[in-house]
Amino acid sequence: MSQHDAEETLHTGTPADFAFAVRTCLAPLKLQHVFDAAIGYVLHGTGSQVLAALDALRYTQGGKMVWARGIAWTDDDIAAVASLQPGWSPQAANTALLVVYRDAPPDVLARFGRLLGAISVPDGRSSTLWLATLTDDVMKATTSRSEASREVRTRWTPDLVSEIARAGRAPGQTPVHATLETLLHFDSGRDEGNRHEILATDTGDAFLARHTDVFTEVLIAASRSHNRFGYRRFALLRCGRNAERHAGLLAAMAVDEDHGVRNEALGGLAWLEEAKQVELLRPHLRTAAPDRLAGVLERLTDIDGGLAAIEDALTATEGEPLEEKRAQLLRRAAERASLTREPVALLPVPPTAAPTDPDLLAELATRPAAARLEGYHFWPGVVQWLPRIPDVRALRDALRKAGMTDADRRTASLLTTQETHIYGPKIGAVLTTEDAGRWWPLFAERPDLVVEYLDGIVCERDAYDVTVDTTGIMLKILECFPAVPPPLVPRLISIGLGTSWHRLAARRVLGDHPGAQAAAQTALNGAEATARASAAEWLIDRGEPGILPPEPGWQFGDGVLSPATQNLPDATLRRLDRFRQQALGRGVPAQDVNRWLGLARPTLQTAPHGTGLVVGRLGGPLMLPPGAPTPSSYDGFKDEHFHDDHQLIATIDLSAIPEGATDLPLPPDGMLLLFANPDLDATELEGGAVYVPAGVPVEERASTPDYEIFQFDTPEELDAKLRDIGDLWLTPGVSLPSIPPDDDMLDRHPHANTLREIWSAQADGDGEWQMGGHAANYDDFGDPVTDSADPELGEPFSDPADWVLLAQWAGVPMAIVYWTITRQDLAARRFDRVAVHMFANP
After folding, report:
1. Contact 406, 240 (CB under 8 A)
2. pLDDT, tens digit, for every residue of 588-606?
């Protein structure tokens, strides 16, 4: 009999069924001889001392068979219970549980919950967590789509939970407190069952509306606990459905400690009248922590009366004077807001281009109502619709018409929404020129938003959210403007004369603007060295004669980059520039960022899309000088009958490597053969390198490596794959440390962990091959370069600082191979001393 059939068989609808159902659920307790006492307690409230006995039975088979859901019990386990309770089976117990949760009165459910808590909650916390245990169990028991599951879900409302809390005297100031604290609480030490979904219904919304004061108290208190932020975001999303009723709570949470909670609170407030929002948010201007004020200031600059509130806060004389950071934030917000109130700031923009796509029109018609339900993170699946909107103001207008007071900003926020669920790029990060054309009229009407994006707004919504370059996004959009709005010219000139890579895009936006030409000439003759270098670069690009170009790498400052790194191509240095901007944005002091940039080293890396330089070939044939031994391991015997050949992985043409592409003292020509037997059982591999000088004749050599390789049947199969790839394409790159720092590194670079995290996020996808530079981090296994200094038995100790990465290859499934050597041996062409390592996590 299926579970669904069993549910229907027991579903008679009579309340008396629950007594039999309780017995069925608790039948496994007969194995521990506490069944009768447990039944007496649950059904009649007698013998509460059984709870203490059950606490000791948590990990017994009978105990686990009562509370552990989804486990496939053995036939012997099932037979043991069935022998004591004829007809018992896990399916019958699951069906009986639904009857209990559907029919049992609150007092019985309270005692059932206390019993479940006693037998499943460790650390003596069952007396405080029994209500959470019970509601979690309800959610787990009703995952099927049967009619019985639906009826249980329908019955279990917040009001029922409150009745159960009252009957069982659940901890809390009142039953309503206990209910909300339970449904909105997350305990990281437990396997919770989405009990907050009990609030995600119309009855849940009505419950919250009736108990607004308690709801506010509980939710604000949760912000001072270890409560998961996601639960409070969920609660605020429900508030948005009845923003008038929960206005006070939404306003309080608008300056919460969590960025995502603040966003949801402001998203709910956006549906209120503008005057009401000003009234609610005004007090925060002088009292909230400055680092939590950004969203409040943005909202106030979006609505009528908001700018006046900000100006009042700046000029008010009562109480303590504003601290400097707060005053700076308010002044900056007021300056930005004033841009939209200056007629000269506005460009002539065309009327909104109305979409004609019938599917899109239908979507836009439903989008405002959906936005109210979805909160700040509105419009899932936006990526498929944006390319079909000729002018994003069509969406903005639909949201405005529905009453959203931050429709401009909410529409603009789609630029910082990820294309896919968690790991995709932000929409704005991959804008094409055609895409940018959909956005420019919106920003032309809101130059204050342009300035916010140019300044690099904080767009992370979660601790692990992907950052995005809003400055770059806005410069791309500004290139579509028919003219530069006059108030934006000074800001663009400042970027154009700066050191950030954005200077090039800012210069394109300014074009032939006469103010830009004059500013560059002034800076060229000024006292500030960096501005002079930037101005020289700018004027040279504009075709001005007689100007000396700045030194390579000037934008990083004197002495920041090593000479080998600062001469890298501009396109390569751009990665370091982006890294610097992100590190400064994360709060790393400039001097610490510069010292870390001093560790940057040039590399050759696998080129994206098969471009770059052909520097060699993967796999065979093995070409060696006549008479040269086949690279092998001899197990202590110099005898051809006792050796294991090494597998050829790549042949590098050193003459194809441009001068300065790495900072390694490589030979200028000849062939470098890299060998490795990537055996998962070893971290120090059989292998090495062989150098064949230019002009030395070679012949094809047979080789028969014999070892076990992961996910390949034989070494010959790996060689066939390598030969199929063929040419090895590499392109100039740059490398920074990404391996977890040791204590010595942390002493010299206290922000090393943050800096390597930022770089690692950039370096993902650099490809399979790298020559020179820093070794790539692999699952925090360590640094193969410094590890190479550990001497083998009988060998002298070497200085870890002498070792360098010759090459690395991430072509073995779930592993990476490194070839390392000392600089001294490399300069002396002692390639016989190359060490080979592999880190793997199959």
Report:
1. no
2. 999 999 999 999 999 999 8
What's the rounded Cα separation, in Å, for the pair 340 and 333?
A: 12
Residue 42 sits in the same domain as residue 91:
yes
646 lies in the same domain as 776: no
Residue 266 lies in a domain: no
* Same domain as 467, residue 374: yes
Domain that holds residue 797: 732-840
Q: Do 649 and 619 contact (CB within 8 A), yes or no?
A: yes
d(CA 208, CA 240): 12
What 3-state DSSP class applies to 733?
Answer: strand
454 near 474, Cβ under 8 Å? yes
Element (H, E) at 255: none
The answer to whether residue 528 is domain-embedded is: no
- Whether the upstream peptide bond of residue 321 has omega within 30° of 0, thus cis, is no
Asked if residue 24 and residue 72 are part of one domain, the reply reads yes
Contact partners, residue 760, CB within 8 Å, separation at least 6: 738, 777
- What is the per-residue pLDDT for 226? 47
Q: Which residues contact 167 (CB under 8 A, 6 or more apart)?
A: 106, 107, 109, 110
pLDDT digits (tens, 9 = 90+) for 792-825: 645 666 888 899 999 999 988 889 999 999 999 9
Neighbours of 798 (CB within 10 A): 16
Q: How far apart are CA 448 and CA 445, in angstroms?
A: 9
Alpha helices per DSSP H over 343-429: 358-374, 382-385, 393-402, 407-412
Residues 685 and 756 in one domain: no
pTM, rounded to two decimals? 0.74
How crowded is residue 305: how many other Cβ atoms within 10 Å of its Cβ?
A: 13
Q: How many CB atoms lie within 10 A of CB 780?
A: 8
Q: Are 232 and 250 in contact (CB under 8 A)?
A: no
- How far is residue 173's CA from residue 214's CA, in Å, rounded to a whole number? 10
**What are the φ/ψ torsions at residue 462 (nearest 5 degrees)?**
-135, 160
Apex CA 401: angle with CA 205 and CA 359, to 5°? Answer: 90
Q: For residue 462, what are the contacts with CB-CB under 8 A and spacing of at least 6?
A: 259, 260
Torsion angle in degrees (nearest 10) through CA of 776, 777, 783, 788: -50
Confidence of residue 461 (pLDDT cuts 50, 70, 90): very low
The last residue of one of the domains, among 448, 478, 508, is 478
Q: Indicate the residue among 156, 184, 214 that finishes a domain.
A: 156
Plot region of 379 (φ>0 → left; ψ -120 to 50 → alpha; else → beta): left
Mean pLDDT for the stretch of residues 657-675: 94
In the chain, the percentage of residues whose pLDDT exceeds 70 is 90
Residue 335 lies in a domain: no
**DSSP string covering 183-252, please?**
HT---TTS----GGGGGSSHHHHHHHHHTHHHHHHHHHHHTTTT--HHHHHHHHHHHGGGTTTTHHHHHH
Q: Which tokens is 523 given?
A: 């800076």
The pair phi, psi for residue 553, each rounded to 5°, is 75, 15
**More confident: 756 or 467:** 756
Q: Determine, yes or no, domain membership for 99.
A: yes
Residue 239 pLDDT grade (very low, low, confident, very high; cuts 50, 70, 90): confident
Residues 756 and 658 in one domain: no
**Cβ contacts of residue 151 below 8 Å, gap of 6+?**
98, 102
| Domain count within the chain | 4
Q: How far apart are CA 619 and CA 725, in angstroms?
A: 9
CA angle 127, 27, 50 (to 5 degrees): 35
| CB 270 within 8 Å of CB 306 | no
Compute how many other C-beta atoms are within 10 angstroms of the C-beta atom of residue 587. 8
Residues contacting residue 537 through CB under 8 Å, at least 6 positions apart: 549, 550, 554
Whether residue 718 contacts residue 815, with contact meaning beta carbons closer than 8 Å, is answered with: no
Q: Do 643 and 774 share a domain, yes or no?
A: no
Place of tokens 């000269």: 344
Output the pLDDT for position 12: 41
Domain match, 649 and 629 both: yes
